[in-house]
Amino acid sequence: ETGVTQTPRHLVMGMTNKKSLKCEQHLGHNAMYWYKQSAKKPLELMFVYSLEERVENNSVPSRFSPECPNSSHLFLHLHTLQPEDSALYLCASSHSTYGGGSYEQYFGPGTRLTVT
Amino acid sequence: GENVEQHPSTLSVQEGDSAVIKCTYSDSASNYFPWYKQELGKGPQLIIDIRSNVGEKKDQRIAVTLNKTAKHFSLHITETQPEDSAVYFCAATGRYSTLTFGKGTMLLVSP
Fold it and tell me: Which residues of B14-25 are buried (b: 16+ CB within 10 A; e: fewer)?
């Protein structure tokens, strides 16, 4: 495995629920990412954190709220989601976001989210 | 921003044959091009990558070639095996060294 873990692996929630996805990396990296993977679409970058600071937010609706308390942990808080938000949510980490040749991103197994 | 096109979307080969997946990118400033393999129920796994100062890189049965002038790069898998069956994604760097991914190629290797 890659050293990036995600919990839960599967989540079913109603549109009025509030839930959180958790990601943890054990690779000593400084950057962490959230991606959304929907059927027949490219991986969509949602958020980027570098040294616990958000450096990119790809026009993601406010019903998705990220949190990065330290460089090893990343959360995605979910509230009032829509059925079209059902997807595989992937977390990734990398050494940094500032180039220097350290571009390799390592992914977790993902959380399969179903919104009913 | 960066745009990455990947072809084909599906590829079926017989065991032992070679498989080639091609990608094009739009941003001439991109300088890092990884390939990921995603098996069912798992996250994408980095299998090989290439940087813009290199034209070709090989690792056992897989190789990647890069043509910066034409802005395209390709993944080559030789002597395919059933365990190579998966979805393969190409990507290229963008702002903050983030990755823009292609839509993926589903490779099916038949015994």
Answer: eeeeebbbbbbb
Interval A12-69: pLDDT, tens = 999 888 999 999 999 999 899 999 999 878 899 999 888 777 777 778 999 999 999 9
Kindly list the distances between the CA atom of residue A34 and the CA atoms of A52, A77, B70, B103, B107, in Å, as whole numbers in the listed order.
13, 12, 31, 17, 26
Q: Measured between alpha carbons, how far is residue B23 from residues A10, A74, B20, B33, B92 in Å?
A: 32, 31, 10, 10, 10
How far is A59 from chain B, CA to nearest CA, in Å? 14
* A2, A43, A56 ranked by CB distance to B89: nearest: A43
Q: State how far the Cα of B5 lies from the Cα of B60, in Å rounded to an integer.
A: 26
For β-strands A10-13 and A111-115, DSSP reports them as: parallel
Among the partner-chain residues A6, A55, A108, the one whose CB lies closest to the CB of B96 is A55
Kindly state whether A94 is in contact with chain B, defined as any CB-CB distance less than 8 angstroms.
yes
Cα–Cα distance for residue pair B91/A41, rounded to 1 Å: 14
Query: Chain B within 8 Å of A93 (Cβ-Cβ)?
Result: no
